[in-house]
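Researcher: Batch entry, complex prediction.
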Amino acid sequence: MNYETIAQQVLKRIFIELEASGRHVHVTGQQALALFGHPLTPKRPLSQPGQYLANERVTVIGPKGEFQNVAVLGPERPEGQVELSMTDARTLGISAPVRLSGDIQDTPGATLRGEQGEVTLLHGVIVAKRHIHMTPEDAKVMGVSDKQVVRLQTYTARPLVFDDVVVRVSPKFETYVHLDYDEANACGFQAGDLGRILQ
Amino acid sequence: MNYETIAQQVLKRIFIELEASGRHVHVTGQQALALFGHPLTPKRPLSQPGQYLANERVTVIGPKGEFQNVAVLGPERPEGQVELSMTDARTLGISAPVRLSGDIQDTPGATLRGEQGEVTLLHGVIVAKRHIHMTPEDAKVMGVSDKQVVRLQTYTARPLVFDDVVVRVSPKFETYVHLDYDEANACGFQAGDLGRILQ
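Model: Structure tokens for the complex:
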């Protein structure tokens, strides 16, 4: 190992790369058929293993507005879900709560429109709660465990410390911080920026 | 003084009320005449003494989009200025830097359209740098001075600590933290929420 490799490994024990998630939708297999006439097809992989951006796009419709050309992420899930920023939710006129992905009980709904049809979700619209995906190896090195809530310093153009950041540990993950675009803009995020857990 | 009054005075030495500033425009007297055919007229006062929301509204036009019905704040200023969130700036296609209000050297421009005409600003489009307006009395109590950069803990639905918050002290001010809507949404701000300077 050369110095550069060693330096990178040391830095990876301290810093975590930030990612900003734009508004996006998850659908079930049946919803994909109703919206597009066929299952989702992968366009490009995302940072989390097995997850992908689909070629298919939808319009998300709320009482006050709509967003066209919204990303659909695959693979299909057991329940449909729409992840927005608070700014987006206000534009659509939907009072979406801040939740971890998948935690959609008692959340409001929205209508999705695809090339082949419309699907109305009775619930599933959330503002994604900021979180860190982490491998078990990185969790061990950083001294954190699944579901632990930590504070995260951002090394960004408008630096800040996010309180209440949930760590999710799984061998299925790669280690990344996920922010929504309100949070990304608030800290002046640019691609490649790093954060650090404060103990 | 009753207990409630005393409690309030003690709390005011510790906490500062947060305010979120939406996108808005400042204009010169000449620009107001060109846009509206008359000087600005006050609709309602803002938290900072002498500042007001005008009855007049403008459309702000950038290379990629426009916002209609944008607030104009009075009184008129020596230079025109457009204050956006990063989200807004992206929508308009303007690469606006993060600056304190009034610091518009080498910033991009935009076109304003009013009822009576259009004005093109050659520069003046900024993302407002977060800041605290503070009275000299509160600055003394809180142990900070003009232009000091502090860290601010928010007591909000999505709590966080903003680094790099500039304190502006003047007898013309009332004491408030000013955030833009990206920052307000990132911390889950609701009207009346408080912050505290971390020393």
